[in-house]
Prior knowledge:
9-stranded antiparallel beta sheet; Beta-galactosidase, Chain A, domain 5
Amino acid sequence: MEPRGWLPLLLQLGLMWPPWAQPEPQLRVFVVPHSHMDVGWLHTVQENMQAYVTNVYNSVVEALTLEKKRRFIAVEQEYFRLWWDGVASHWQKRKVHQLVAKGRLEFVLGGQVMHDEAVTHIDDQILQLTEGHGFLYETFGVRPQISWQVDPFGASSTTPTLFALAGFNAHVISRIDYDLKEAMQDNRQLQFVWRGSRSLSAEQEIFTHVLDQFSYSKVPRYEGFNWDGEAIFPGPSLDGKYPSMEIPVTEDSIPDFTHLLGKRVLHKASWFQTAHILWPWGCDRQFFNASLQFANMDIVMDYINSEASEFGFSVEYATLGDYFRAVHSDQVAWQVRDHRDFLPYSSDMHHAWTGFYASRSGLKALARRASSLLYAGESMFTRYVLLAPHPYLDPAWGLQQLQQLRWAVSEVQHHDAITGTHVPNVGDMFVEHLSTGMQGVHKLMASIIQDRSPAHSGKRGPEPGGHFAVVYNPLAWTVTTIITLTVDFPKVSITDESGLPVPAQAQRSKDMPSAYDLHVLTTIPGLSYRHYSIRPSRSSQEETGEPEPFVAKTTQFGGRLRRYGGQVGGSLVPVKNGCYIVFMDLDTNLMHSVWERQSNRKVYMTQQFMEYHANSDVWQGPISDNYVFTPSGTAEPAWEAVRMEIVEGPLVTEIRQYFYRLPTFTIYSRLARGPQGSDGALLCHHIEQEYQVGPLELNREAILRTSTSLNTGRVLYSDNNGYQMQRRPYRNYKNNTIARNYYPMVQSAFIQDRRSRLVLLSNQAHGVSSQRNGQVEVMLHRRLWNNDKWALNNDLTLNDSSVVHPVLWLLLGSRTLTSDLHQRSGLALQHQPVVMLREMNGEIAPRGSGSRQQEAVTLPPSVHLQILSIPGWKYSSNHTEHLQTLQKGHEAKADLRRVLLRLQHLYEVDQDPVLSRPVTVNLQSVLRGLGSVVSVEERSLTGTWDVSEMRRWTWSMRDPHGHRGSGTLPSPPPRGPEVTIYPKEIRTFFIHFQE
Ligand SMILES: [Zn+2]
């Protein structure tokens, strides 16, 4: 084939060139070498390290050292750090320093992993970025400035905001709806300025590049320019032979390569507005033999460049930074995109990637529990170990426990981890890392408490046995809530640190028939803990005079068969607290309605478990799997009869609904009674529901469907990463309409009509949808198996036979009330007090210890303490000073006095008349309980920039003033301890306290 047969086409392309780009420019092709290295997907981290990751860095460093023009981008920091700390030689480290300094090896994204954007929480995204960025800055003095989110399944609009706050200049995404991408290509709209938040100012917008249809790689042989073939994993090859490589570049084969490259360039050029073409060169697990890759590509590129004028383009190795600097210099007026996200994602007409919102539900729950525990451990360590040192605990050991969990929580944010799209043994690895990390932090927290307030031995208490409970509130607000302790005796006396009795309620445990659940009402100030002593009381109440917890009373209601019509609502049982009356229907044993007292409105509401059935034979039609959701039809009830129990007590009334079939699914609904007034508002204003779902039958996808009398027009709202809400109107599609109307719910979703809103809050990710007017359904669990050969060969099936126990909080009320409570309730659910229980061995409780000596840390209600931690980084926060230290080759010591503080305004600009206002916080007085603040430095999101020195690129826009959020300028860095936080702002500080 003639090598330059496509040239006439390029001339035609010149005619298509947009008028503002005259005269026809010479195309410049930026070949960006990269390797996509999933942190666990088909193989564990260790297996990947062994099979190719180590060789990627070994051979890339060598190949780059040999030829000046070569470039490489490094993405996943978990791998890079494992290589750096465990493999790299002194020589390699020196070379890497040089390559990084010259901009030939560029770190992009810089997180520990390439995080998923649909089912991850914003706090965890920030954590994993902070972990990676801290290491890079500490080691090289560099700060990543371009993102590379090229494989996550859909793109959230939280991400552009985060990356802007981290100091990035450009953001790269790829997986968006196929039909949208096609339209954007045709209209040359793959590049735009994205304003991810409707409340934040223009400062938080970011230039965004959507990779074209070739994405970050092209897999079929002979098109990927991958001469190093396929990585070989331990164990026998599946097809009995090694995968073949592409043919080497020789005099004979070069025309084929240059022709192909030219054709690709031609396509790409027609989709973009500038003459600068980004060509990601690499794929999954490539560049483990980088010399071979580069040696072949060098020939192709040299050949083209020697006849560039004839080809009509030149080609060069580049980093992403090189490419975006060129685009930035183009002076194009870019389109602006508002805060809408790119979720859900369909890769084609038949594949809606909405299944993974609920795949491996158990792992999703564990990941968030680990994250919450880490959050609590961080602030407790900061407050009680480093700022108030005590004799028994080694801070270095404590930091190690936290670091282990930081790493595990970061890892599981990977786009094949928390998504549930990995093979089972990789899932086991995630679970093991999380569990080990959690054990360490539990141990740390228990040691902190024990060492600070050792119980005195001495005079025995009234009875032997019993427990001490320490309950820590990790939020920076006073929290009133009910904690549940499991004890093995129903008659107990429970007292607080002052020896005073505490309101409590005992009932038989639903999990362990021989044990009792003890519900205890507690009020704990911000970042403080309280002590409780729980002792069995074998003598009667009259003798001791001590009040005992009320033992709850259980009423049973016989089974009711599922009805197809017939009478309902004839006989209702009310279950009340100060905010709601829930009516249960004795004709069905289902929920009938909820009366919300404050707005005096009754909303009809019923709930049931249902299942979507999935096809198991790929030859019979489309299938559901870890990634995609393709139900065979509409959902069907997953039960035949319901039995009910109501367990009533003074603090909590629990409704237990058992949905019968095999297996049995259960809903435990709880209404709590606490103090009146603002203290008890969050406790009163929700119905807590815990579900028990599973094991599912094969090829079932289980949902909880809530049907209400709200006139919602099938409009659903669901969140992006717990940060902001998106409006999701129901849409009809040619194909896959049920699945394409599914969305991720990371922390919340709601439906509403003019008068009322029903909010669902969760502490783990699920799928959520509204398929009918007034309905909302949450996908809780999936179990799938089919005969897809690729999945079977790779063991990538979703045969998940576990039982899951997700929890939702239901908030019903006026829009005003629910807007007020939504964010704080979400946090209250996510960050419930941490209970540490230990056995009492003839000791007496330490009187007067605990919260009475602690000064509360209390932030205004619209400001959330996003993190309070001691990262232990080894760098000066003065950039010049840090670079000098690095140049001298000195290793700085970990700064254990530098406290990382991040504050987040929870409300959108127009969400609430009061809570949406900017808030001024005096850090000195808020943090008084921790010590005396001597300095406050404002930093970029991940801590690496002094914000007053951070200059991001500005981009010209077609409508520079349109769609602007609040119009507020970003807040200036603080001069003193007073900071003002505007709606949705996230601000990061280094705080130094007096020694
Ligand atoms: Zn990937």
